[in-house]
């Protein structure tokens, strides 16, 4: 069931939610949290679909905040709120409110969202793209216990990752971190089978994939060994190699689906490491609402402490790979500060 409201208010939206539930015969509220999505028209459909799919595991009230850009000075002065209320089969297992904020109202989204939050339920805010430099200090982010960003969607993912580390607050998380959960689990299980100490490691993947940097920083932080960041054509993260005193442990995924785990003295084994959809990543993050201390330690470690890719041998005929922020710490830090300043100025 869908209810369209034009030039409305938060009070009328709440009344529409109650009327919609009664119309479909489910007046009781059985939702466990409020998920606020801050997006634009271009990405709204994909974000809402992912949230709706994840609601099958976490029934929730989904509030999509879409700020409409006003072209003329006069329309920018006018404040208007349009809304679309979805209940029943049109909203997964919860209910959805799509808010379109026009004019000056777009700068005060928190005043519209606050009356729509479920009482006595956790609040999660998700920015599929264009996240603020400091999510915890954002007016909408301040309402939430958990704040989800995605550095992979940024124009300069590695600079964005540096900003995330500099502005981290308890409750922040990143879907780039969620993407490597199966990798971290598999590598930890492999080390449980190896009694030997790890002396060095390397992470191989696409040059602008922040998940690769996060995995490398996690290994360096946890193992206390040098970790080299090397590049490949992808897709995504392609290989991790850990040098131990008993030999090399390798987890190699060349096709983005099936990986091979190789360990000294053991036969190679196939491991399912399929690249997951956004709905699966979101559902994983909604399972925990407490601060992720492991992510905090990894993202604060810093890409400047990782070793960059090695240049090819002379006479090989290959061009050296382009330098990445991991190999140029000064450039990364400067770009991170510049990005944070720009985002702060645009608020």
UniProtKB/TrEMBL annotation:
Residues 301-347 are annotated as: Disordered. Residues 52-164 form the Glucose-6-phosphate dehydrogenase assembly protein OpcA N-terminal domain. Residues 170-299 form the Glucose-6-phosphate dehydrogenase assembly protein OpcA C-terminal domain. Residues 308-338 have a biased composition (Low complexity). It holds the Pfam family OpcA_G6PD_assem. PANTHER family: OXPP CYCLE PROTEIN OPCA-RELATED. This is Glucose-6-phosphate dehydrogenase assembly protein OpcA. It comes from Streptomyces finlayi.
